[in-house]
Amino acid sequence: MMKKIGFIGLGIMGKPMAKNLLNAKFPLYFYTRRPETETEFVEAGAIACSSPKELASMVDVMITMVPTTHDVEEVIFGKNGIVHTATPGSIVIDMSTISASATKKFAEKLAQHQIDMLDAPVSGGEQGAINGSLSIMVGGKEEVLSKVKKIFSAMGKQIVHIGDHGAGQTAKACNQIIIAETIIAVDEALRLAKKSGVDPAKVREALLGGFAASRVLEVHGKRMLDGNYEPGFKASLHRKDMHLALDEAHHAGVYIPAAKYAMQCIDQLVMKGHSNLDSSAIHLLTEE
Amino acid sequence: MMKKIGFIGLGIMGKPMAKNLLNAKFPLYFYTRRPETETEFVEAGAIACSSPKELASMVDVMITMVPTTHDVEEVIFGKNGIVHTATPGSIVIDMSTISASATKKFAEKLAQHQIDMLDAPVSGGEQGAINGSLSIMVGGKEEVLSKVKKIFSAMGKQIVHIGDHGAGQTAKACNQIIIAETIIAVDEALRLAKKSGVDPAKVREALLGGFAASRVLEVHGKRMLDGNYEPGFKASLHRKDMHLALDEAHHAGVYIPAAKYAMQCIDQLVMKGHSNLDSSAIHLLTEE
Questions:
Q1: How many structural domains does chain A have?
Q2: A68 with A197, same domain?
Q3: How far is CA A223 from the centre of its chain?
Q4: Which residues of chain A have pLDDT under 50?
């Protein structure tokens, strides 16, 4: 029998992910505070619950896709949290991007209630969520992952078991700093071309054929050339994720100065009021 | 009739590039100071010349693939240089990585002798040179490029006309700073993973499926995981190219702080005696 899934966090990413679960015929329960989202999902065949607590009593697997570490804590351990009613043997999958160290603590506390946890943050953006082509980075026990692999397959293409609890979040932190630093690299290169009187579009085209090639040069480089910073991935969210990564690096004692510089650029972008633009809009800062 | 080509600079890159011209049946003349290289190419069917000057009197197209801006100047304008005997209408193709501004001056001076010039630096490394799969970034007149396209096709796969004289070198500078900065990004991410107790190999694998994907994460990331820094691209050469890029940025008034930080790391690597390692060996510096 197919596992009953409870979904909490029907935002920009969560909505299309939950839709893909419905399309794959999983029985879907959900909790939302937005009436229009409730109507939309009930009409699509899902079952509305009045709280995470109520939802947890009805399902085998709970997926959380919320903005912050605090939100995850509230949904799991708060007054109306999952933990109060979830049945032993059920599984919490947190697909949010949150603190790796907090994730380890949450997993420990849930284990005391015989509830398993996986951290499973994603990469691929809204488009990847819609297409069901997300890359999913999983932390937690491999045998737990094997129980929910079909669920992941409905939402993503590449599913990698990174390691123990928190390892998925660490991988996501690595992902976010590489993207930020590569955006900086592409930004600097395109400005060097332009100021030298050379067509940056031609440079991008040529460089995509060599060792400088990257998804960022392809996608974000195009955004910079077009001056089109519709997200994509909002600067405010990239800033949040970079903060998590820098915090983790601080506690682990890792020296990552280039990531810190990238964070400064994203900070500046947000402080100038561009938090809703794609983070590649840092190209604007130095162009001005 | 096929154009007669003169090749100067049969080093690590030049040798396989010239071999590919021979394989494509171009009549090949060459100048080298190394007796063993002379024997090798004579046996392969090429014709040895005693100086660039002698070589230039016998061919339609001269290719230079030498280490520095000064070497190119010497080969073209020196006492035994190309310029003294090259016939009007002949073409100099400089495939070295040198200064964009010097390239513009060289092209101007050659034009006074009715000699056309193209700057055509490459990306793809020794392996790309051997496979004939180089990416070639061309500066100069498009009609001159069209006359030698077959020559480029024997050595490379992606041939992009970037713009006027020097534009190829500017594109190459952009290429080198992106590679250096992406190496830094991958280095920081893999160290963050490791110090957080997470398998960096798993992180690389997962990240190759998302927006953090790049040729550098693939190739140089693998080198870092294996601790195998056989070049690839030697730190000493990357340092030379970064110096050219920073010099160009300085004169154009472009703000590229992350490229400068990457240069510091490559500097450090070289100063510690690792100039013959691949430039991704900067991973060693911070691992120690």
A1: 2
A2: no
A3: 21
A4: none
